[in-house]
Every structure is written in C-alpha cells, then in structure tokens.
Amino acid sequence: LSRLAHNDVYILSVIMTSGGCGGNATERYEESREALKILGCNKIINLDFNDTKLYLQLKEMIDSLERILATEIPSDVEIMRVYTMHNADRHQDHVAVYQASMVACRHIPQIL
Question: Are 37 and 68 in contact (CB under 8 A)?
C-alpha cells in the first residue's frame, strides 16, 4: 500500500468490525487508523459489524461495500483493483469479508 500511495494511487480502506473480541476495541481502532495513515491511505472507513459474527451479516456487508463504492470514491478516481481477505483464511470473519467483497466488487477489474 505504501508503494502505491507513493505513486499517487488513491487508497480507501474499509474496516468491518471494531475487533473488540480480540482485545480492547478502542486501542485496536486507533492502532488500525495510525497504521493505515502511515501506509498512506487517503480515506479510512470504520464500519461497526458484530465481531466474530460477520457470516450472519453478509447481505448487510455487501450493501455497505456497494454504498461505499458508489458514494465514497472521488469522481476522478477509477477503481482498478481491490485487496481483500483470502478465501482460505482460518478466521470466519476474514472469510465472510472475502465473500462480501467478491460480490460487492464484482464489477472491478481485479480483486486480490
């Protein structure tokens, strides 16, 4: 991401949960924001889906991602690539994010 940011690529990051089940939600929120800023993200969107239960919220995640793609990207930015979780990840939330991303981003040329 840092290399892309240095090449003036617009980077928007979406965080789906607070991560509170894995520790202090406030600290994780701040750590994530600081790390993404260091990497050069232009915009960070924090959603508040239920941690460890994303598989129960697929439709809502898809709707949120589609809304973000439609309303949160500057009009002069062409979305050519999306990075998401891997479908073979062992964490159920990561697999659910992969599934929602594949549907919501189906019109984007490259999903990694």
Answer: no
Q: Where are the alpha helices (DSSP H) in the chain?
A: 2-6, 25-39, 58-71, 92-104
Q: Which residue has the tokens 């309303």?
A: 71
pTM recorded for the entire structure:
0.91
In a 10 Å sphere around its CB, with 0-12 CB exposed, 13-18 middle and 19+ buried, how is residue 97 labelled?
buried
pLDDT average per 10 residues of sequence, the chain (112 residues): 96 90 79 94 94 95 98 95 96 96 97 96
Query: 3-state class of 67 per DSSP?
Result: helix
pLDDT tens sequence across 85-98:
999 999 999 999 99
Q: What is the mean pLDDT of the chain?
A: 94
Q: How far is the CA of 77 from the CAs of 23, 68, 80, in angstroms?
A: 35, 13, 9
Count Cβ atoms within 10 A of the Cβ of residue 5 and give its class: 0-12 exposed, 13-18 middle, 19 or more buried: middle
Bridge partners (DSSP) listed for residue 42: none
